[in-house]
Amino acid sequence: MAYATTNPYTNEVVATFPEATDAEVQTALAEAHAAFEAWRDTSFAERAKVMNAAAAILRRDVDKYARLGTLEMGKLFEESKAEIILSAEIFEYYAKHAEALLKPELLPVADPAEGKAMLVHEPLGIVLAIEPWNFPFYQVVRIIAPQLSAGNAVLLKHASNLPQCAAAFDTLMAEAGLPKGLFRNLYAARPHTAMILNDPRVCGIALTGSEGAGTVIAGIAGKALKKATMELGGADAFIVLDDADVEKAARWAVIGRHWNAGQVCVSAKRLIVADAIYDQFVALYKEGVAALKAGDPMDPTTTLAPLSSQAAADDLRDQVTRAMDLGAKVEVIGAPVPEQGAFFQPLLMSNLDQKNPARHWEFFGPVTQIYRAKDEADAIRIANDSPYGLGGSVFTKDEARGTRVARAIRTGMVVINHPLSPKADLPFGGIKNSGYGRELIGLGIKEFINHKLINVVDIDAAF
Exposed, middle or buried: residue 372 (CB in 10 Å: 0-12, 13-18, 19+)? Predict the structure, then answer.
């Protein structure tokens, strides 16, 4: 079966689910379109009731949903709970702000006699969401909350190792009062992506996934002339300048690299440290990683989770071996991890000079790349020497300096004196091979919207 729950802590296959049939996909499309035709004219107040209800259910049943996330992809239970609360906050954000974000806009015209021009923002139809496994709930909510609030319908193709989390969304949205058809989880097979995107009732696709998946899906969407947003990989720079608080920066680096077992697009994957503080920082970083405890992700004392699957751990191990063959130096850091389950030993990787192409790779797990920067300019150079451009961090005691460096980094998001982590009221997205488009706040809700011009002109006005 393509869709299966396999507990990464035990490698036990818990449940399997059959793929959707062509007929089921066609039924979902027909029901979604019929529901959209009514939903598009439903008031923002009525849509907000559904969003607030979904948020309340997530808050009420936070432990239930968090257990599913931990069961299916292995993240720490406390991290799973935080993800559920963040998802509730996103629902609440759009319940509160959707109407204002999409209100008609009057446009200034050079000559009032030329007309009264305005932009109105109207929903377009069905959005296909293809979402990954590393944030089973947040990744989905950051699409469905804005798109349903805007008046669109959404069909979900979730990661194949998260069938129970995916199904939970059907139950959640039905209980929240969403009309039937407006959202549906589909255990879609690969050919169904093209089938869905080629349907004229579908207006576009939102993908979060790998760079390789983005290339394929963007090609299908482009051929079908459908709008796409792509949130792909990242190899975020974590810059520590010579005037930073080294102890605090090192502690944040440990957290920024190892939360969700390092399986985060905006994880602090590349530590770029000023020469003057490099040795001190590395010693503190190793000490912090050594304090991590790998084990049962449901145990509150565990601080390092397994990877999402044994296959993910094996692939990462192979990638590290290839990097070493190209000249990278790898040092084992941290305490030994359990042999059972999809655990991966934290590693520190160096000697990634311009001759080593591994410096351009994304390591999705607890593998840290570290670079020694001569000065501020060199740190910026190293940060920008990447095909990715998703997020990043800058540590310094000088706010103006931090802002200057942040502006010089070619990426979609930069946080000063903190690792980058998603928030309900901040935009998310990147550039270069990290994708295009934005999610959350007003940017996200307007991605699959018709920004229609309406201009009222005097019939006797000049042409």
Answer: middle
Determine which of 110-124, 164-178, 345-359, 409-423 has the lowest per-residue pLDDT on average. Answer: 110-124
Is the pLDDT score of 112 beyond 80? no
Answer for the pair 211, 218: CB distance below 8 angstroms, yes or no.
Answer: no
According to DSSP, residue 3 is labeled: E
Question: CB neighbours of 117 closer than 8 A, spacing ≥ 6?
Answer: 106, 107, 109, 453, 454, 455, 456
- What pLDDT is stored for residue 458 in this prediction? 86
The whole-angstrom separation of Cα 424 and Cα 60 is 19
Helix (H) or strand (E) holding 32: helix 22-39
Token digits of residue 426: 């901040």
Domains, the chain, in order of start with CATH, read 3-232+430-455 (3.40.605.10), 237-416 (3.40.309.10)
- The DSSP string of 379-423 is HHHHHHSSSEES-EEEE-S-HHHHHHHHHHS-SS--EESS-----
DSSP-derived secondary structure letter, 304: B
Residue 1 has pLDDT above 60, yes or no: no
Q: How far apart are CA 380 and CA 438, in angstroms?
A: 24
- Predicted confidence band of residue 140 (pLDDT cuts 50, 70, 90): very high
Tens digits of per-residue pLDDT, 169-222? 999 999 999 999 999 999 999 999 999 999 999 999 999 999 999 999 999 999
Three-state DSSP at 139 gives helix
Q: Which amino acid is at 154?
A: V
Nearest to residue 388, comparing CAs of 409, 411, 369, 367?
Answer: 411
Residues belonging to the active site: 231, 265
Q: Which amino acid makes up residue 98?
A: A
* Res. 310 pLDDT band, cuts 50 70 90: very high
From residue 35, give the alpha-carbon distance in Å to each of 98, 116, 178: 20, 33, 10
> Biggest alpha carbon distance in the chain?
82
Cβ contacts of 275 within 8 Å, gap of 6 or more: 242, 372, 373, 374, 375
Q: How far apart are CA 154 and CA 33, in angstroms?
A: 10
- Rounded CA-CA distance 161/68 in Å is 11
How many Å apart are CA 180 and CA 175, to the nearest integer?
11
pLDDT tens by residue, 410-446: 999 999 999 999 999 999 999 999 999 999 999 999 9
Angle (deg, nearest 10), helices 44-60 and 62-73: 70
